[in-house]
Every structure is written in C-alpha cells, then in structure tokens.
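Please annotate this fold before class:
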Amino acid sequence: MMAGRGRRCLSAAFFAAVLGLTVCRLPALADDLPLPRFESADCPFEIPSDGSVRYGRLVVPENRAEPGNGRTVSIAVLILKSRSGHPRPDPVLYLEGGPGGPSVSYYGDWLASPILEHRDLILFDQRGVGHSIPSLSCPEIRTSRFEALSPGKDPAEALSERLESARLCAARLRSDGVDLSAYNTAESARDLADLRRVLGIPRWNLYGISYGTRLALRLLREDPDGVRAVVLDSVVDPESDEYAAAPANASVAFNRFLAAVSADPAARVAFPDLESLLDKTVADLDRTPKTARIRLPGGGVGSVCVGGQDLLDALYGFLYDPDSIPYLPLFIRTVWQGDVAHLAMFAEEVLYDDLSDGLYYALQGHDEAPFSAAPEARPGLYDPLRFERDLALAFGSGRADDAANSPMSSDVPALVLAGGYDPVTPSEGSRKVAGWFSKGTFLYFPGLGHAVSMSSGLEEFVAAFLEDPSKPQSAEGLEKKGVRPFVTRLFMTASPYRLYVRVAYDRDVDVLFAILAFAGIFGAGTLSLFFTWKDRLRPGLSRWGFAARLSGGIGAFFDAAFMAALSLTVAFVNRSEPAMLFFGLPQQAALLPWAGRLGFWAGLPLVLGLFALFRDPGVHRGTRIFFAALSVSQVLFALVLANLGLI
C-alpha cells in the first residue's frame, strides 16, 4: 500500500498503468554453495564508493517446502552505514509497503534520516520485487488497465480483459518456472529471518509502513528472539477483511475530510456545501465522462476517459498524503468547473508506479483474497478495491495458513502510529494491533493520512524511540501535526508541474532543448532593444522596420520575463511547498499569463513588419535572419502557452 519512501502512496486499485517493461527473469538454479547465503554483488544502480552503502544479495530456496527442486530466489539488499563511528549493534530493517513496493533503489531518500545517527539501516526488495530475481512484473496487467480507460470502452468488456490479463500473467510466470505459491508474507518473513542470521546480527529493530507492518508482524512470529523493538506505521490489521472493509474505510476517511472542511472557518465560506458539490461532480462525470490526454512512460501520449469513480479514486489517493489534503477542496471545485487536467495527471502518476503487479496479486491471492468476502455492490457505493479480489484469486497462488490472519501477542516494545485521514488502514485497526503488545504505545495524528512517520518531525520521534524503546513515549507537541488550514485561493494550473516532471524526472531532452532555445532567443531579443534603439537615428532608416524590431524586442522581453518568473516560482514552490506544485501556484502567479499575452501582442508587429525590415538596406543580413527567427519563436511560444493553458 506504499511504493517508495516519501512518494505519494497509491494502491493498485487506482488509475490504470501501462506497459511495464521489466522482463521477468528466471530464478537461479541452486549450486553447491550453502543456502541461505549472502553474496556481495555489483549494484545495478549508482551508489557511493566510500563504503557508506553496501549492496548484496540474499540467496534462499524459492519454496522451503520443496528445497530439493533446486530453485532459488535472489533478494536485493542494501545496507546504509550509520554516520556514527561506533554504531549501535542493532540495525533497523525497513519494511516497504505495497505489497510489491521496491525499496533499495530509493536509498537516497534515507541518507539524511536521523536513524543513521546511531544505527545502520537495511533496505531490501521483497522476493519478486524490484531488483530481486525473479521479478514478477506483469506487462499484461498494465496494458489491460490502460485499455480499460480508453474512451468508449465497455466496462464489462474491460473487466473481462483485466481478469484475463491476470490469468495470462500468472500462466506466463508459471511457464517460466515461477512457483507462485511461494510468493507470500510467510515466505518473505522467513527470508528476513535468514538474512539476520547470515549477516550475523543478534537482534535488529523493525520499521514497517502499511503492508510492511503485516510483514513485520509475521516476522515477529517467525523470529521473535531476533527483534529488539518495532515501529508499526499505518497498520494492516491481519484480522480485518481488507476487501469487504474497503468501502466503509473509504467512507470514514471521506467524511472526516468533509467534516474538517466544514470546521475550517475560511474553507466553510469558500466551499459552503463541498459534499453536495462532490456528489454532483461525480454524478456529472459518470453521466458524461471526459477525455483527457496523458503522457506515457517513454514520452508517448495517450487518451483516457475519466468518470466519477476516477475522481473518487483520486480523492482516495490524495488522502494518503497530508501535504495534498489542504488543496483538495479546490481540486474538487476545479473538476466541477470542467477542468480534468489534474485528474489526468493523477493517472500519469500511477503510470510511473513501480509496484510489482505479479507479487501484489500472487501475495494477495494467497494471504487475503481466499479469506475475504467481496462487498455487496450497491448503487452509489464507492469501492476503492473493486475487482481487486477477483484479480488476486485469478492468480491461483494457494492459501495461507491460519496464522496469516490471526492475532498475536508480544513483549517486544512497539510504537504504533496512525493518521486520521488514512483511507486504507484506519486508525481503529492500528489501535487494536497496539493492544497485542504488552509494551505497546499507540499514537493518533488526526491531521495526517497514510505513512504518518514520513511527515517532518516524526522521523526524529521514531529515531528517539528506537534509541530507547523502554522510555515512555509522548507525542506532546506533535498531536496536531499535519492539521493545516485548507487553501481557499490558488492559481490552479497543471502545466508547471507537467513541465517540471518532464525536465526534472523524465529528463526529456526535447522539452529541455525547447526551453533553452526559447530562453536563448528571447534573451537575445531583449538585448536587441539596446542595438535597435542606437540605430534609430540612422539615415535611410525604415520606420516600419524599426518599429518591427523594437516591438519584437519588447515582446522578447515579456516572454523572457514570463519564463524567468515561472521558473523562479516553480523552484520556490518546489522547495517550500512541493505538494502545491501538483495543484498549481500561489494566487499571485495568476498574473503570469499576462506577461505571456503581452509578449504575444507586443511581438505581433514584428511579424507584420518583417517585409519592411527586410527591405531596409541598412539592416545586416544576420540581423534580418535573427528577427525572422525571433518572430517565428514568438508565434510558436504563444501557441505552446495556449496549449498549456497559460495565456
């Protein structure tokens, strides 16, 4: 239920993803070396060479019930060394969410963690995930999800294709030799118990978020003597029926959000009846879905059809992240006004999800789905996990033992955290699980969502607990963490975020080149004002040509000012309030489009006066070519801004 530290936590039930390109690799065949074992290995991505990061692989039997078949799995492990010269002997093992979320490739997110002040931190990719071998990626499922959102797609046909895609992926993995019944929480917990032993660690601390809490609880069963303390953040309650409870959990989270808006004085005035507005927007989109363009991995462009359920999916997903919650009333109103650009961007976010679909469905089909009852479908009932149980069962990955969904007890010190807006792991389940620990402490943060320990200030709190788990924990001063006023005014625009992602994350050379080219020619056009003005007294000067050059320079100045102001604003927002950038820019930035408009209108006389400019014998050929290029650039720039909705 979480993928990537510090990233927005998105469930596999959300918007479609497209074409996963990672090819599943076969497990290695066992050799004469002992199992389990830990091997140093070349890291598949760049890590520091100073010894502060160690990468290796844990090799274990694929199925411990059938060790004689010779099949193994190789689990990617990355160890971040403590900043202390004398680290504590009990490192911290981080257990990622999902299930199926990778961990090791996000090691950079942990380099500044306060945990590293005194302890090493161990990251791993669960069997079937990320850089572990085999990789249970499922391009069949990704493709079917995307196609389900195609404009005009029949819902029944889309569901049938999605179920078939799950069967096809499972069949392909089996034909590759993968034993899907071995990819579950119990086997993963035994992997970790083996990892502790082969690394020679007497005891370690567990730090699990979302699904990682379920894995941590199972590891406590499998290897209780190896655990010193445990942090459980946003707990997956093993006793809860995840699929049957999903509609009620979502409803509780939605109601808390709407109640918080009503309790906020400014928001209550700005959004007097947000619940009715949300209901109306959902109904309108269900009745008349809208088509939106999205970018695809690899730089392509596709069209998706978004309806009311997709809006609820987005709201559900945004409630994971407390930094996004203050902008949700504006988001709802913007969609009601007919602008679905942010909904399309939500789809784009999920397209880059690196969750292992094969591991997710194999594990859920083994641990959860066989014990679950699908909620009864009712008109108006929002189910965030609709169809997910059927997809998991389609994998046919077996059935877990009774311990998988049973309570437990432990004397290990435990810190259990929950957020009030969390739509997927409600605080009631976290509170109940905290009671399973004789030394358990439960802390509730009403203003936070999912993965509360990722919020600023709480990482230090977690590190302090791990330093002395016997010390009574108080959240004094932190209880109101994340409780922020709702934003009532914002320049709602999707374009700055889209451009930022294309440049900063996608490393889109074409977009970067276009930005630099526009910046260069507009900068030169601004400088041309000086030379144009000096030329005003030249004998034989064409007044129309002079006016064209002057207006072109003024237009270039406004265009350059627009680009500079937008870049500085995006940089400032991304540094001070990153979540805002997804939704828009500060209200003052609403003046920016005027700079773009002025640039266009000021530059228009250049286009009209090119003929006179070219007939002026006193203008050098190079100058003529430059102003012709400037005029073309100004027209193209105006078209780009119009397409982005920025003029």
